[in-house]
Amino acid sequence: MKKSVKTGVVATRTRNGFREVLLVSTKKNRWGLPKGNLIPRLGKKRTALEEAYEEAGVLGEIRNSRRVRLERSRWTLDLYVMRVVKQLRRWPEKAQRTRRWVPVHQLDEWLSRRDLVKSVQKLARPARQLA
User: Fold this and answer.
1) CB of 70 within 8 A of CB of 76?
2) What DSSP line would sit under 20-62, residue for residue?
3) Which residues pair with 23 in a beta bridge?
4) Whole-angstrom Cα distance, residue 80 to residue 83?
5) Which residues, in sequence order, are bridge partners of residue 76?
6) Contact, 11 vs 34, CB < 8 A?
7) Considering the entire predicted model, what is its pTM?
C-alpha cells in the first residue's frame, strides 16, 4: 500500500513576549495543525498555505525551507513554518473548525502525540535561536 503524502504549517506569532502556535479543532474533537493531502499541481509549500487558509483562516508565507517530517505506516507529513500575515474573520471551514493560539510551552496540554509536540516546538523557535 502506498503512503499518502500530507503537508501542513506551524503558524506562529509572538504575543506579549510569548511564541504562539495556531491550532485548529479536528473532526474527532481534538486539536491539531492545519494540514491536508498534497495537491501535486501546487507542491508541498503552496498546499500547506492553502490548508492554513481553508482550515484556520490565516494567510501568510513560508520564508525558508525549515521543515520537519513525521512518518506513520499510512502517511508522511511535512510541516513548514508559516509567518502569519493576516487572520481572516471568515474562512472556508469556519463552520466546522475552531482556531486557537497556544503558547509553545503549553503545546503538550493541547496535542496528544509527544513527537508532534517536539516537532512543533522545534519549528516554532525563531531561526536566530537555532544556532
Assistant:
1) yes
2) EEEEEE-TTS-EE-SEEE--TTTHHHHHHHHHIIIII-EEEE-
3) 100
4) 10
5) 5, 71
6) yes
7) 0.90
pLDDT tens digit sequence for 33-73: 999 999 999 999 999 999 999 999 999 999 887 899 999 99
- CATH fold for the domain made of 4-126: Nucleoside Triphosphate Pyrophosphohydrolase (3.90.79)
Q: Tell me the pLDDT tens digit for each residue of 65-102.
A: 789 999 999 999 999 999 999 999 999 999 999 999 99
Pairing of strands 4-15, 75-87: parallel
In terms of C-beta distances under 8 Å and separation of at least 24 residues, what long-range contacts does 23-30 make, across chains too? 23/99, 23/100, 23/101, 23/102, 23/110, 23/111, 24/55, 24/56, 24/97, 24/98, 24/99, 24/100, 25/97, 25/98, 25/99, 25/100, 26/97, 27/96, 30/112
- Which of the four pLDDT bands, split at 50, 70 and 90, describes residue 128? low
Domain ranges of the chain: 4-126
Q: Grid coordinates in use for 66?
A: 525549515
- The secondary structure of 58-87 as a DSSP string is EEEE--S--EEEEE-SSEEEEEEEEEEEEE
